[in-house]
Predict the structure.
Amino acid sequence: MELLFSLVIGVLSASGIYLLLRGRTFSIIVGLALLSYAVNLFLVSTGGLHTHSAAVIGASAAPADPLPQALVLTAIVIGFAMSAFMVILAIRARAELGNDHVDGKQGEEGSTR
Amino acid sequence: MSQHLLVFPILLPMLTALGLLLMGQVPTTLQRRISIISTALLVVLSGVLLVHANSDIINIYNLGNWQAPFGIVLVLDRLSALMVALTAVLALGCILFASAGDDGRGSNFHGIFQLQLLGLNGAFLTGDLFNLFVFFEILLLASYALLMHGGGKARIGAGLHYVVLNLVGSALFIIALGILYGATGTLNMADMGYRIAQMDEANAALVTAGALLLTVVFSLKAAILPLYFWLPSTYASAPAPVAALFAIMTKVGLYALLRVQTLVFSESPAIVYIDNWLWWGGLATLLLAGIGVLAARDLRTLVAYLVLVSVGTLMSGAGMGHISGTGALLYYLVHTTLIAGALFLLAELIGLQRGKAGTRLVRARKIHQPALLGGMFLVGAVAMAGLPPLAGALGKLLLMQAADSAQRL
């Protein structure tokens, strides 16, 4: 399970960073979303990976650490708000600057699809 | 009552912000009054806290009466009291300036401004690393909104870069927190420092990785060399009172760096890397920012580079890893923050009187109050340069003496 979990995090962050380095706001938003998924998964794993263990004392033989779960919940909420803000900002930038390039100009680089 | 005093610098801006945002469409004068009164109260409150903190006891407030290290604590010592007081004084000046008309160009300026103060005060007072992340997010989200206040092409373009960079920074912040929690099992800063000091060799590499990631995140906020390119365009395009308040934003990064450097990682092997990074990064920032000041073709960009000069100076002070360096930089920090804020406001005033030329450094028509504005600019520039009769000279002298005693040169 550890191998699968770390592979998933690795692939998600690699795709996220690749998209983040593109020149268009849409791919950047998708990249940020993927990166935040990877980060949230990573945060869950900091309490150790267990199956069939609830974060309640007495409910299972070895209760899971509740703190990473609380942290990841906070991180998800914040990440959600930030994504919403970023989408609105990108639409606003598209309207103000006339195109969706991050530098506000139709560049030759980064426009390959 | 007095033990609850610690939480008020967070509660007061929060309640004011909620009130202002929920009131919706009320006359701007009412919003201004509420905002100014609340910020003035904050100045008084931070003064009381400053007196309260002036002892060798570190005041701790357990939120919800949960015992540390399980609950979240607020910590008040001389350093955090100083930063809260500095924020309040700077914010009062910015609010008064904005009330002259800048606040009417968009909606909810005052409500968002108070949210920004909530984030700043929280970041300075918290004693918990994850809580620090939460307050960072609050102040960043408020700063995005303030930066874009009034709209316009340049602001949206610079704002986009600023937001994306800081979102990536937040992702790195969470990864660093995850690593550190996994290695130490705590998020309380003091407890983490204690556990790192007791730690065996097996986890040392993990802690070092977490510590350095955290340093990268705070360096982005503080704007040290490879991570400062967002700052000049962002600060130069922000509305003047917002840019003046942003003078403290880089100091939040510096404060966080100082906290983790002295409290959390002082016993870990990572401290050598952090000190070296801050020292050389600070000096290189100083050099490049100096070139930036000389090359700037707009007064606001010039002041933004001056902020970077002060960041470089302060960082090299922190990089000395010596108590005299830290003392000197804290003295210099107060001075440079206030002067940078004042110069941003002054640049706006000068730009307003020059018609179309604005703040660009070109020949333009005469300003109406050459003696007043020119005199004020002279005082500000002399203070920034650190010439003797003013406070900056002493700060720089202290820093140079510290560099001598820390044997970094």
Q: What stands out?
A: The two ends of chain A are 36 Å apart (CA to CA). Residues 21 and 28 of chain A are 7 Å apart (CA to CA). Helices of chain A lie at 2-20, 25-45, 66-97. Chain A touches chain B at residues 20, 25, 28, 32, 35-36, 39-40, 42-43, 45-47, 67-68, 71, 74-75, 78, 81-82, 85-86, 89-90, 92-93, 96-97, 102-104 (CB under 8 Å).
